[in-house]
Amino acid sequence: MELLTAAESEVQQRAVAGALLQRGLKAGDRVAMSTSGTAAMLSAVLGSLRVGIIPVVLNSALLEHERAELLLNADPGFTIDDTVLAQLLDGPPAELAAVPLARPMHYTSGTSGTPKGVWSGVLSEDQAQRLFDDEADLWGFNSADLHLTCSPLHHSAPIRFGGSTLLRGGSVLVPGKFDAHQIADVIQTHRPTASFMVPSHLQRLRAIGALSSTNGVDFSSFRLLAHAGEPCPPPLKTAAIQAFPTGAVWEFYGSTEGQFTACASADWEER
Question: How far apart are CA 66 and CA 29, in angstroms?
C-alpha cells in the first residue's frame, strides 16, 4: 500500500521532468513507460506531461514481442522501466507548467483488434488549463480528497483521476493489484473520498458482501464513485447506488479518446 501526497508527488514530478530534459528530450517527444503501477509511476507521468513530453504508457506485463510491436509504432526517444525510473527520481528539479500540457499516449485495441496509439498533441498552457479545469471541476477534485486507485495505472482513467487529485492538492492511495478483501479493508481503515472502478471491481466487492445494506462496508466517506470501462448490469448499478452516499455514483464513457460523457446516478435512475 502506497500513500502519495501532492507535496511528495510534486517533488517527484520535478525530478523526473528535470532528468528527461537533461537527457535532451523536449516538448512533443515521446518516452515509453513500461514500469510497475506504482505511485512513482503516476508522478513520472505527470512530470513528463507538465513539460510537454508524452509518456507512451505500456502494460509492464506485455510479452516481449507485444511490447516490441508497440515500441516500433510509437517510436519513443527514450524508454523507462523500473530501474530507469528510480534513476530519474534523482534528477534536477525542473520548472513545470501548472497542469499537464498533453495526455499520455495509450494503445487501445479498437474494433479491428489491432492496437492503435491514441494521443491528443501538445497544448498551450492556456488550452491545457481550460481542459484540466473542465474535468477537475466536473469531478470536484480538491485538497481534502483521498483518491483510491483500483485499476492498473497503465490505463487512462486511473491516471487522470489520480493525477487530477494530486494537482488539486489531494492525496492518492495505490494498493497494487486489485483484491476485493484488501480494498474493503482499505476503505474501512483509510476512509477514501473518491475512487474510479470498473464494474468488475464492483462485482467482486458485491461477491464478498461489501455492497450489502446490512453488514457491508461503510462507504460513507465517499463523495464520488465513478465507473466506466465496460457495461454495468442494472442490478449491480442499483446495488452500488444503494451502498454509496446519495449522488456519489457516476458513470462516464470515452476518457481514452478525449473528454467524455458523464451521467449522474439520478439521471440513470430516471431513464
Answer: 22
Helix (H, G, I), strand (E, B) or coil at 238: helix
* Domains: count for the chain: 2
pTM over the 0.90 mark: yes
In a domain, 266, yes or no: yes
Contact 20, 92 (CB under 8 A): no
- 65: number of CA atoms within 13 Å, CB side? 0
Q: Considering just the CA atoms, what is the radius of gyration of the chain in Å?
A: 18
- Output the CA torsion sign for 47, 226, 152, 31: negative
- Work out the angle at residue 4's Cα, subtended by the Cα atoms of residues 37 and 46, and round it to the nearest 5 degrees: 65
Cell reading at 192: 477514501
Would 226 be classed as within a structural domain?
yes
Residues 95 and 188 placed together within one structural domain of the fold: no
Convert the pLDDT of each residue in 100-141 to its tens digit. Answer: 999 999 998 755 677 888 888 999 999 999 999 999 999 999
pLDDT (tens digit, 9 = 90+) per residue, 184-194? 999 999 999 99
Domain hosting residue 221, numbered range? 178-270
Output the pLDDT for position 259. 66
Amino acid at position 234, single letter: P
